[in-house]
Amino acid sequence: MNRFTVARSEAAVPHDPCLSDVTTQLMAEFGAHVDRAAISGVVQDGLHDLQCSPAAARVVGLERLARNRLITLIEQGESQAW
Fold first, then answer.
1. SS3 52
2. What is the C-alpha to C-alpha distance for residues 50 and 33, in angstroms, rounded to an integer?
3. How confident is the model at residue 3 (pLDDT cuts 50, 70, 90)?
């Protein structure tokens, strides 16, 4: 089993209360395959990409975007393992 990790700096991360909620939800779903730092990084990158979205739409959009990116990350890792 591959477990993905990502090194990143927390200094440039915008503060948004939905970050920890989305990260916690995705940890429950992807934690067996991806470490918390990688999941947090994907969530933070998604938040950055959605920063111009209305706040109400950003939470739902962020979770969907991060989930899709994590699935892609896992699928790419599995295809590279062969």
1. coil
2. 25
3. low
- Token pair, residue 56, equals 């109400």
Q: Would you say 73 and 38 are in contact if contact means Cβ atoms under 8 Å apart?
A: yes
Extract the tokens encoding 67.
């989930």
Task: Give the C-alpha separation, 43 to 18, whole Å.
Answer: 10
Q: What is the pLDDT of residue 60?
A: 85
- pLDDT for res 80: 64
- 8 A C-beta contact, residue 62 and residue 26: no
The whole model's pTM is what?
Answer: 0.75
Residue 36 confidence (pLDDT) above 50: yes
Q: What is d(CA 28, CA 30) in angstroms, rounded to the nearest whole number?
A: 6
Match 């939905």 to its residue by tokens.
18
